[in-house]
Amino acid sequence: MTTPILDVHQLRTWYPVRRGLLGRGAAWLRAVDDVTFTVMRGETLAIVGESGCGKSTLGRTILRFVEPTEGNVWLDGHRITEMSRVELRRLRRHMQVVFQDPASSLSPRMRVRDIIAEPLVNFGLAGDRAAVDARVADLLCQVGLPRSAAERYPHEFSGGQRQRIAIARALAPEPDLIICDEAVSALDTSSKAQIVNLLSDLQQRLGLALLFISHDLAVVEHIADRVAVMYLGKIVEIGERAALFEQPAHPYTRALLSAVLDPSPARRHARIMLRGEVPSPIDPPSGCRFRTRCPYAFDRCAAEEPELRERPNGQSAACHLDALPALS
Amino acid sequence: MTAMGISALIVMLAIAAPYVTDGQPYSGNALERLKPIGTHGHLLGTDELGRDMWTRLVYGARLSLISGAAPVLIALAIGGSLGVIAGYAGGRVNALIMRTMDIFYAFPAVLLAIAACAVLGPGLLSTIAALSIVFTPSIVRITETATTRIRGMDYIEAARCSGATDFRIILHQVLPNVQAPVLVYASSLAGLSIILAAGLSFLGLGMSPPNPEWGQMLNSLRQSIYVQPWVAALPGLMIFVTSVCFNVISDGLRVAMDVQDG
C-alpha cells in the first residue's frame, strides 16, 4: 500500500512553436513544465487551475497520447515513458480515462454494448459472447443504467447518462487508476452532482485511484483527498484538501479559492481580484511565474524561481513568502 | 423512388438480356437499315447496319452499368484505403499520399481519362482502369478529410486506452464513422462514370465497334441523325436517364445517411 500507483517525476511537455517567416528561431510552448507528484492507491488527487494552465496536457501526457519532452511517469512501478507501443497497450488496462465531452468520447456508430465491451475484448478479459454480455450488464448496473441500455446508441442518452457509459467503459478492464479529464465540467449542475457521487462511490467500493482534472473548485472540494494547483504549466501548491482549502500558502491558490461561490452568507469573504492576463506559456516571466499578477510580489520574485517548500500545515507551495499576509 | 425503380428495371433488363431480346446484338439485316421506332419486329427501330436497337440498347446496358460501377468500386477500394491511411497516420505518410494525389488532381478529369485510355488502348478493361485513375484522387481526398476530422475525436483515444490496435481502431472506429460521406460521394460518381465511359467510347477510345456500348452507338448513329433522329437519340436518352437516376439515388442516400447521424 505504500508504493504510489502513479508517480510523475519532473515531467515536461513542450510544444515547438514556429516563429518568424521561415519557422526560424523555434520557440517552445511550455504546456507542462517540471511537474512532480504521486498518487497513492485508492486516493483522489485533483489537479486544478485556469484553462490553459496545462492540466489537460498533463493528463494526456500521463496517458501518453502526447509524448513527454522530458521526465518520467511510473504506473505501479512500470515506467510508462520508456515503453514500446505493444507494452504500453497491455499496460493501458490499468489506467483508464474519462473525457470531458461524452458526445465526442463515444463513437456515434457503436452500440453501448460494443463500446463497453471494447476493452473486455481487446484485453481478453471475458471469454465468450455470453460472458461479455454478462459483464456489460454488470457494469451498466454499477453505473446506474438499465440493462436495456446495451442495445441502444449513445445519441439516445442524455449528457449525464452518456458520461455513465464512458465511466462503465473505463471500469471494464478493472483499472487501478482513472484519469478524469474535466469529466463533469460539461454537465449541468444536477447531473454533475450525480456523476461526482457515482465516482466517489465507485472509488470507495473498488479502491480506485482518481486523477481528477478540473477547474471547478466546488467539485474538487467534494471529491479530492489531495489537491494540486497548477499555474502556467507548473504546480504552485500541492497538499491535503483540508489544509489547502483552509489555509492556502500560495497567493494564487488563495485567489482561486476566493473566486468560489459560497452559498452561505456567514462565510462570505473578500474576493481577491487578480490584475492582468495570464502570461504566455511561450515566454513565461523570469523567476516566479505568478509574480506579474501577484499582489505580494517583491524583488526576489523576479530574480529567483521559488521551489516547492513544505509548510507547517503539511502542504507544499512554491512561494518565497513563509506566510501570506492576512487579508484585510 | 422512381429513380430506384427505373435503375432496378435497367439492371434487371441488363441481367436478363438474352431472355428479353433476340439475343443477337451483333447481327443485322442490311435490308432493314435505319427503320423508325415502332417498326414491326423492331420495336425501337434498327441502326445503320440493320441491327435491332432494342437488343443493342439492352446489351449496351450491361457494358454501361459495368463501366459505371466498376471504376467507382475500384476507386473506392484503393482511394478509401489510401485516404484512411493518410488521414490516420498523418505527418509524412499523409504528405506523401496527398501530394501524389495532387499531381493527378492537376489534370482535368476528362483529359486524364483520355490520356490513360490512349496509353492502355481501347476496350472495357482500359476504360475501367482509366476511370478508376480519374476517381481515385477525389475519393482519397474526401476520405482523408473525414478521417482527419475523426482522428482528433476523444473516442479514438478512448479506444486506444481500451487496448485497441491501430488496425482495430481503423476497422471499428474510423471506418463506420467515415463511411457515410465517402459512400454518398462515391455514389454520385457512378452517374458521372457512365457519362465519362460513354464519352470515351464516343471519342473512339473506350469500347470499339461492333460492341453495343451506348457512347459508341451514339457515335456510329451520328451520321444518320438526319435520317432517323429519334433512333439516333436513343442511346443518348439511355445515358441521360441512367445517370440522372444514379444521381437521384445518390441524393437520397445523402439524406438517408444524414438522418442516422442524429
Search tags:
heterodimer, A: 328 residues, alpha/beta, Rossmann fold, 8-stranded mixed β-sheet, 4-stranded antiparallel β-sheet, 31% helix, B: 262 residues, mainly alpha, MetI-like fold, 0% strand, elongated
Question: Nutshell version of this structure?
Answer:
The complex is a heterodimer of chains A (328) and B (262). With 328 residues, chain A is an alpha/beta fold.
Structure explained in plain terms:
The complex is a heterodimer of chains A (328) and B (262). Chain A has helices at 55-62, 85-91, 102-105, 112-122, 129-142, 159-171, 189-206, 217-223, 241-246, 251-258, 299-303; strands spanning 6-17, 27-39, 44-48, 70-75, 78-79, 95-98, 177-181, 209-214, 226-231, 234-240, 309-310, 316-317. Chain A has 328 residues and is of the alpha/beta class. Chain A folds into two domains: 6-224, P-loop containing nucleotide triphosphate hydrolases (Rossmann fold); 244-328, no CATH class. Chain A is globular and about 70 Å long. Chain B has 262 residues and is mainly α. Chain B has a single domain (46-261), classed as MetI-like fold (Orthogonal Bundle). In chain B, helix 1 (2-15) packs across helix 10, helix 3 packs antiparallel against helix 4 (91-105) and helix 6 (124-151) runs antiparallel to helix 8. Chain B is elongated, with a radius of gyration of 22 Å. The mean pLDDT of chain B is 82. The chains are: A alpha/beta (328), B mainly alpha (262). The A-B interface holds A 63, 65, 89-90, 92-93, 95-97, 99-101, 104-110, 114, 118-119, 122-123, 155, 166, 169-170, 172-173 and B 153-155, 157-165, 168, 172-173, 176-177, 260-262.
